[in-house]
Amino acid sequence: MMKTKEKNIKHKDRKLTRRKFMSRSAAAAAALTIVPRSVLGDPTHPAPSEKLNIAGIGVGGQGGGDINAFRDENIVALCDVDERRAGGTFRRFPEARRYKDFRRMLDMEKDIDAVVVATPDHTHAVAAMEAIKRGKHVYVEKPMAKTVKEVRLLTEAAREAGVVTQMGNQGRAAETMRLLREFLEDSAIGEVREVEA
Is the pLDDT of residue 162 over 70? Predict the structure, then answer.
């Protein structure tokens, strides 16, 4: 009985995110002092401390669109060997430091939380692995790798590093997909016996 109660408490604690903590603390802080909401954060104006530091590797073409999807976060570094092709992305994020070698960028930029990889297909696994080895969360475009062995190595490295990864299968991370997954996991629509797509 006691173990179950302790487990539930621990489980509840894990669900308390920094965003939830900050929003719950906002009311108490407001009673003591008046501060701009951009400092405390709210769903429409996250506090600066709530933003992720994102880096992009391969930011021309598809990579430019990928990194633009994170425009509300802190885009701190951009890497591309083709400055002309990546020019639009560089102009959109003038504060981001520029690199041509992603290994150098990952070594120099210690404050990166996550990396978006959209290099040419044959280098996806290489760039993703370098980021994972340094403890960075990774979004990597498809195909994630050239071989099953590379996929297995990336999976194991991500487990060991304790990082979150996602491969860019457009549509798979949409809100509708997450909602459908919740319905299935909560048995909200009963047992699914057949799916036609």
Answer: yes
